[in-house]
Write a structure and sequence with these properties.
The complex is a heterodimer. By secondary structure, chain A is mainly alpha-helical. Chain A is built from 11 helices and 2 strands. Classes of the chains: A mainly alpha, B mainly alpha.
Chain lengths: 286, 337
């Protein structure tokens, strides 16, 4: 029972972090058809900024996190205007090459400014305390992560299903040319959703720093992990990313609890099974 | 009526023959010059033979990737799976059965081909992102299996205790890597010419055809899926050779042989050099590895700046890769006039 609830809680919080970081990647890959290997770089930049702010200033945790996420989003808009505009028109392999190049530059910059050690983010004291639920105690950090993940999933659902921006985004995903001929400013939709994805990656990177520690090589180390979530969930599907992230998070955590000597093998077997049965991912469109 | 149809064709063949043979001669000279560079490097850089041997091994791997990615157009980020299979195949064979290098080379190649065939059976049904992810997964799963069977493979400590016999019983692998270098160079030359013949053959034309339009190839009767599995298996054979040479020359195999970094680097080198050209695989690998090596030895902390900038410059300004540079340059010169 203790093992089962441990797997569920840890798996759920791990899945939420995977979801937060990957969902932006799913949107950009589904919407802009860009294989953006630099996505993890935005999580790194958010995490590194948060590390710097919490250790070198008196802004406090919450304000630092908000500032780090906003800074990452502004940086993402600049990147979109300078680099990604052209990348959209590249072939797939050139996109892979270009975004790997951008990732290298991000890693090198963080390495140059902050070094190659782990960059801890100083979180409030009570995050590391635990809550007694009667049948077991839970670290507060896990609860915060799960609640934040749920809130973001809900917020994204409302944003995409109920707002004007969401309608424009979905229209652009379905058919970019048709959307722009109907008067939707697709360039703006692209830039905004790119910044949104980068901001979510930064937020996920900061919150997930306890499970996926931030250091300069973060984007390369976890690149595969985020791509797996997107591929299993289905390109451009937010609900797909959500279920894929949580499912994979629980499978990976369960394997670590029960058969740790097998490492990540079950994670990848689960992915292969899903992709063999549904090559377009759980909720992806053909 | 038939005679008049044949005649122009004969004429064409006669006039085209000298031009074609001259072109063939030039290409042969280029190849001989490349081999000359390989032999010259042996005498010019006696202290860096280990590093140059790594370049040669990497060229074999990138050539095998070029066959799949450049010629047949199958995007894979898991070529390390085949390299690692060859490396562990040859390494384990040397430790447990026989330390004969050539036998080990064959074993490594066959293990690479078998892994490629089995994984190819389901990989070649997928496309795009799904394919990329599946190829990554194959490499990761093989890595975990090798890691788990540490009693046999040494797990994360790497496979130790490889001690190769002399080649043909005469040329022993020496401490300075002289034999290892010449061995790797010989294997590379053989692989290169074999690939050259292969891509110029009807089989190579078929691979390019699948790349350009799989439905059309299907329409003229090519069993596309089985041909792709075949191409992938051949590529696995060659990647296995690369892995085997690496295991034999360094007498060590580590889990990194299956690493995502190796797959990604091989792909970057190939795209840098130019896809679908065997020379592109050579040039891309040499430039990437030399720049990487030089930048890392000048500044071990910030060399990624150099690599990242080089990659971006190439992809933005010479999207065809280094092999597209002469054409770009010529066009630019003409425009200047």
């Amino acid at each position: 029972m203790a093992v089962l609830s441990g797997i569920l809680i840890d798996g759920l919080s791990y899945g939420m972090i995977l979801f937060m970081v990957s969902v932006g990647l799913s949107v950009t890959m589904g919407l802009m058809r860009v294989i953006n290997l630099a996505h993890g770089g935005f999580a790194l930049l958010g995490g590194a900024t948060a590390h710097w702010l919490t250790t070198n200033t008196d802004l406090g945790y919450y304000f630092s996190v908000i500032l780090a996420v906003l800074a990452t989003m502004i940086f993402a808009i600049a990147m979109e205007k300078i680099f990604y505009r052209k990348i959209y028109k590249f072939t797939e392999l050139q996109q892979v090459l270009a975004t790997i190049g951008i990732t290298f530059l991000m890693i090198a910059s963080v390495n140059f400014l902050l070094g190659s050690t782990i960059l801890p983010i100083r979180s409030p004291e009570f995050f590391s305390s635990s809550v007694d639920l009667g049948f077991r105690t839970l670290p507060v950090h896990r609860i915060v992560v799960i609640i934040a993940g749920m809130a973001i999933a809900l917020g994204l659902y409302i944003l995409l299903d109920k707002t004007r921006f969401g309608i424009q985004l979905r229209a652009a995903v379905d058919n970019r040319n048709m959307a722009s001929s109907l008067g939707i400013n697709t360039a703006r939709v692209y830039a905004l959703s790119f910044a949104l994805g980068a901001g979510l990656a930064a937020f996920g990177g900061i919150l997930g720093a306890e499970l996926l520690p931030i250091d300069a090589y973060y984007p390369l180390r976890y690149m595969v992990l985020f791509l797996v979530v997107v591929a299993v969930g289905g390109l451009g599907s937010i609900a797909g990313s959500f279920f894929a992230a949580i499912g994979l998070g629980i499978i990976d955590t369960a394997a670590r609890y029960i058969v740790p000597e097998y490492g990540t093998i079950f994670f990848f077997i689960a992915m292969i099974l899903v992709l063999l049965l549904r090559p377009q991912g759980l909720l992806g469109k053909k | 009526m038939q005679e008049t149809q044949i005649k122009p064709a004969e004429n064409l063949a006669q006039t085209a023959a000298p031009a074609r043979s001259r072109k063939f001669l030039i290409k042969l000279l280029i190849d001989l010059a490349l081999i000359g560079v390989g032999i010259a490097a042996y005498f010019i850089f006696p202290d860096n033979l280990g590093f140059i041997t790594r370049i040669l091994i990497m060229i074999i791997l990138v050539l095998s990737l070029d066959l799949v990615l450049g010629y047949a157009g199958v995007a894979t980020l898991g070529h390390a799976a085949l390299f690692g299979a060859g490396a562990y195949g040859a390494g384990l064979f040397a430790v447990y059965f026989s330390a004969d290098p050539l036998l080990g080379l064959l074993v490594g190649a066959i293990v690479g081909a078998i892994i490629a065939f089995i994984s190819g059976l389901f990989l070649m049904r997928a496309h795009g992102l799904t394919l990329l992810m599946l190829t990554i997964a194959v490499a990761q799963i093989l890595q975990e299996i090798i890691n788990k069977e540490r009693a046999i493979t040494g797990g994360s400590d790497g496979l130790l205790g490889i001690d190769m016999d002399p080649i043909f019983g005469i040329y022993a692998f020496d401490f300075f890597g002289k034999t290892g270098y010449l061995y790797a160079l010989t294997v590379l030359v053989i692989v290169f010419f074999a690939l050259k013949i292969l891509v110029a053959s009807p089989f190579g034309a078929m691979a390019k055809g699948i790349h350009e339009s799989a439905p059309r190839m299907r329409a003229i009767g090519t069993p596309v899926y089985w041909r792709l599995v075949g191409i992938y298996t051949i590529s696995g054979f060659i990647a296995g050779i690369a892995g085997a040479v690496s295991a034999q020359v360094t007498e060590l195999v580590s889990l990194e042989a299956f690493g995502f970094a190796l797959s990604a680097e091989a792909m970057v080198m190939l795209i840098l050099g130019g896809l679908g050209r065997l020379y592109g695989a050579i040039i891309g690998t040499v430039i990437f590895m030399v720049v990487h090596h030089t930048a890392a030895s000048i500044d071990p902390f910030n060399w990624l700046f150099v690599i990242g900038t080089m990659v971006l410059i190439v992809v933005y300004f010479v999207p065809e890769g280094f092999m597209g540079l002469p054409v770009k340059l010529r066009r630019w010169l003409r425009w200047q006039k």
